[in-house]
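Supplementary Note 3. Input sequence used for the single-chain structure prediction.
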Amino acid sequence: MDKLLLLGADSMLGANLALTLEDRFDATGVSRQLAQVAGCRHTVVGDPLDAALISRLVTEEQPDWIICVGPTSRSSWEARADEQPANAPAVMQQLVAATAESGAALSIISSDAVFAGPRLFHEEQSRATADTTYARAALELEASLADTHALVVRTHAYGWGPSPEHPSYTDALVAQLEAAAAAPGDGLHYATPILATDLAELLATAYEKDLHGLYHITGAERANQARFASELATALDLQPPATAAIAIMPLAADRPIGETSLNTRRARRDLGLPMPLLREGLERLAAQRDNGFRARLRGAPEPHVRRTRAA
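The predicted structure, written as discrete structure tokens, is reproduced below.
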């Protein structure tokens, strides 16, 4: 079984990666807060961008694959435009050096937040148009990995979070749907969302194929926040919010369309796999609520299932 070093294991995406890949990888996680992350054999509490810690773990664990879910990995719907993430480029260079010496594969998660239109589906070489602090930080991180053997993945992942105290975008939206409150979001912000566990499967294939360079790996469909909320409510058998009925809102001069959709043609070609449809991912998210996956993600033991003989 190959060894995985997962930096940012207690983030929404990191926790979903760990639990999805637990049967295929012997994982060590680096977590800012959680003492144990489900799916990780061992969890180290510390800063996922602590260069000294990373160097030590690479030496001790000798991982075959390193995934970094860093401060610029959150989707355009989650990240605050004025957010100033920790300075990651210098750490990335040290991480690249450490992986090159150890022979490990390296995957870095980036964000669709680098875009703000005007294209509907941005390709990897499309000009990044978002002029926000967060977008600039993500682009600086990507630039620090140019001409290396690292795989850089722009995406827009959603899923259950590992800690109720720090709800993910999906957790917060579900809570509002369950309370029959007006859900956040509108018809102006578009993206190509992908369920975090679906992304995990595609990343595993990218690892097997030794892909490197910049790839867009995300969902197959372009959707706005209003449609996402409506489809999520349907998948979970909840009442769709009233705001979700408005697919397109009047465009005001001070509210330009937020367009971060990604073109996945290159990933589909090189992975040899399709990207998942929105409704497919949301149905799997709903199943995770009921089959014990979400409970395990949050530290609960796997539920006991009583098996009875068929009549």
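Residues 292 and 300 are 9 Å apart (CA to CA). Confidence is low (pLDDT under 50) at residues 244-256, 303-311.
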